[in-house]
Prior knowledge:
Layout: E1 4-9, E2 15-20, E3 32-38, H1 55-66, E4 73-77, H2 83-95, E5 102-108, E6 111-114, E7 117-120, H3 131-134, E8 136-137, H4 138-148, E9 153-159, H5 167-174, E10 179-184, H6 197-207, E11 219-221, H7 222-237, E12 242-246, E13 253-256, E14 274-277, E15 280-287, E16 294-301, E17 304-311, E18 316-317, E19 333-337, E20 340-350, E21 353-358, E22 367-369, E23 374-375
Parallel strand pairs: 3-4, 3-5, 5-9, 9-10
Antiparallel strand pairs: 1-2, 6-7, 7-8, 10-12, 11-13, 14-15, 14-18, 15-16, 16-17, 19-20, 19-23, 20-21, 21-22
Helix pairs in contact: 1-6, 2-4, 4-5, 6-7
Amino acid sequence: MFRVLLLVVLGSGFVLPVQRLGANDAWDAADTHVVIIGVTRWKADLTRYPRRRRKDKELRELLIQRGTPPKQISVLLDSEATLENIRQTIKSTLLATNANSTLLIYFAGHGWRIGDDFCFANYDVTLGPDNAKTGWTVRELANDVYTNFNGRQAIFIADCCHSGGLRLAVEKLQLKGISSFSLTSATEEITSTGNWTFTQLIIDALAGLPLMDTDRDGMISLGEVRLEINNAMLHLEGQKSGFYSGDTDDDFVFGGTTGEVVNHPELAFPLGSYVRVKGRYGRIIDASNTAPTRYSVEFFNYASKEVRRYAESELRLSRRGTGELAVNMLPECEVRWRGQWYPAKVLREADGRWYIHYIEDDHSWDEWVEADRIRFPNK
Length: 379
C-alpha cells in the first residue's frame, strides 16, 4: 500500500514523519476499533431527545455489516455513558489496537465550549462551576488518543453543538505523525440541530448510497462524503457542518456503492438536486420517465426518511447558502410563488407593483410582483 511521507517540524525542533492517506488507501472495516457514545438524556437538567429510531444503534449494525467484528465495537448509550465508563472504554479500545488499526470515535448528544476546550456531555455531567471537571472534553480525548494510540488512522465523528472542536484531536495526532480527520455536524463556533440528519448522512456514506458518489466512479471517497455532508446540512438543516483533515487526502476511499445513479439530461431538476417545496427542503432521488415528469423528493424528519412525489411546477431549487444573500434584511412582507408564501423584502415600489427580494434566496430571484402576490402580515 503506497504512502507519501511528509515532514512536520515541531516547535522543539525535532521532526516526525506523517503518513498521508490517499488514493491508494481505503478504509479497512475489519481492523477498525470503534467507540459509539450516544446520549439522549442526562442526570442534569438538559434538553432530552426522543429515543425512537436512534441512529447511533443503526451505525453499529451497519459497521458490523461492513465487516467490523462486533467485539471491536463498544457502545455506550444514555445512562451507560458516564464519565468513568467513557474513560475506561476509550482506554480499553486503544489498548486493543495495533499498528495497522483504524480508530473510530463517534459521539451524539449535547456539546458546548469551555474556554479553549469543548465538552461533549456525558450522562452524569454537572452544570455550573464544576462543568469542566465532570464533563468529557475534547482535550482529554485528544490526550488519551495521542498517548495510547499507535495505529494507522483515527476518525472522529460527532453530531452535537460545537462538534467542530474535534479539530483539537486531529491537530494533536498530527504531532505524532498519525493520519486523522474529523467530520462533524457543526463547526466549533455554532450550535447544531437536534435531528439525526448528520448521522444519517454518515450511515448513507458507509452504506454506499449511490447519490454520494458524485463523480459516478462506483467508489465513495472522503472528498465526496464531506462535500455531500456540507451540502445536505446546508440545504436540509440550514447549518454549516465541520471537517478537519490531518493528512488524509480527499481521495481516501470509504468503499463502493450499492448501485448507480441513472440521470436523464432533459430533467429540469437533476437527481441529487436540493429543492424547496411547500415550505420544506428535500432532495430529488428519482424521477419518472414519462411525461409529465414527476419527481420523488426525500425529506428527513428527526430520525426517519420520507419520500413524496411532486410535479415539476411545484418545485423550486434550494438557494440556501448559495450566491450573494441579502445582509441584515428582515422580512417585511410575504410573496406568493407557485401557491406558497415566502418571506421577502421590498426593494422599491412603482405604479402599484413591488420589486422584491426573497430573504432565503440570492438576487437572481428578485422580481416585480403585483398586489395579488404580496401581503404585509405586520401591517
